[in-house]
UniProtKB/TrEMBL annotation:
Similarity annotation: Belongs to the ABC transporter superfamily.
Name of this chain's protein: ABC transporter ATP-binding protein
Lineage of origin: Archaea, Methanobacteriati, Methanobacteriota, Stenosarchaea group, Halobacteria
Domain (ABC transporter): residue spans on this chain: 26-241
InterPro entries assigned: AAA+_ATPase (IPR003593), ABC_transporter-like_ATP-bd (IPR003439), ABC_transporter_ATP-binding (IPR050763), P-loop_NTPase (IPR027417)
MF annotations from Gene Ontology: ATP binding; ATP hydrolysis activity
Keyword Chaperone: no
Highest taxon of source: Archaea
Keyword Metal-binding tagged: no
One Pfam short name: ABC_tran
SUPFAM superfamilies, sorted: P-loop containing nucleoside triphosphate hydrolases
Keywords: ATP-binding, Nucleotide-binding, Transport
Length: 254
């Protein structure tokens, strides 16, 4: 992370810019994951480009979380190749990562020191996520939404080249959702990859650059957003229609 700064003119501290050209893509080939007799991933090929907002969307049980966790190295593939560049990946929200007994500011100091982050970046993250108002609160006493944003702030201390998040907006209030979405958009605009796993594509419609629909552990559609000739407001509907039509085809085969 270095060089020019994002100038989004929104009055918030700028996010230092990363040159996506200097980051390799994440590549997955023939990825299979079996849990006992459940085939969670049935041979997935996927490329995640740097600097893009990439949504992995699919219904419950389609394999999104398994795919995301495999990219993060948290799940061992049964077969196939996962090539993650020699770059920093970041994630949050799977389980709390903060120290409950420390304040927000002290948590940031600890994680910032581990990540060798500079103080200006910690302040930027604090302001961008709207955490500055709770900086002196004990982390264990924060509300659910602030607690989750704190974990995201801690993951961001190392300024990951790719930020991978599983249903990041679940259970957040509408204002918090909006601020988080704006942050994720700004982080992408500053050259970082953002990879979201969700079954609610509609919430991310105005941000998505690349869409991968996952169904029954396989990729049903993998396409740049620009090649889909539908307005943002119809993206969720397009996804649901694709799933319904794939489900009725597989019913027909059965
Ligand atoms: N640790 C596990 N042990 C056994 N089966 C698992 C495990 N994790 C996931 N599965 C199974 O693998 C399949 C894919 O699950 P996964 O959580 O990846 O789907 P998902 O698309 O993220 O679903 P959701 O939207 O409900 O979170 C499901 O059938 C699930 O029950």
């Amino acid at each position: 992370m270095a060089g020019r700064e994002a100038t989004d003119g929104d009055g918030l501290p700028d996010i230092p810019r990363l040159d996506p050209g200097a980051v390799a893509p994440i590549r997955v080939e023939g990825l299979r994951k079996r849990y006992g007799n459940v085939l969670a991933l049935a041979g997935v090929d996927l490329t995640v480009e740097p600097g893009a907002f990439h949504c992995l969307v699919g219904p419950n049980g389609s394999g999104k979380t398994t795919l995301l966790r495999t990219l993060l190295g948290l799940v061992e593939p049964s077969a196939g190749e996962v090539s993650v560049p020699d770059a920093r990946l970041g994630t949050a929200f799977q389980r709390p990562s903060h120290y409950d007994q420390l304040t927000v500011a002290d948590n940031l100091d600890v994680f910032g020191a581990l990540a060798d982050a500079d103080a200006a970046w910690a302040e930027t993250v604090l302001a961008r996520l709207g955490l500055d108002v709770v900086r002196d609160r004990i982390a264990g006493e924060l509300s659910g939404g602030y607690s989750r944003k704190l974990d995201l702030a801690l993951a961001l201390q190392k300024a990951p080249a790719y930020l991978l998040l599983d249903e990041p907006l679940g259970e957040l209030d509408d204002v918090t959702k909006l601020r988080l979405l704006e942050f994720l958009g700004a982080y992408r605009d500053a050259g970082h990859g953002v990879v979201i796993s969700t079954h609610n594509l509609g919430q991310f419609a105005s941000y998505v650059d690349h869409l991968t629909i996952v169904h029954d552990g396989a990729v049903l559609l993998d396409t740049p957003r620009e090649s889909l000739d539908v307005p943002d407001g119809e993206l969720q509907e397009l996804y649901v229609e694709r799933i319904l039509s794939a489900a009725s085809e597989s019913d027909g085969e059965g």
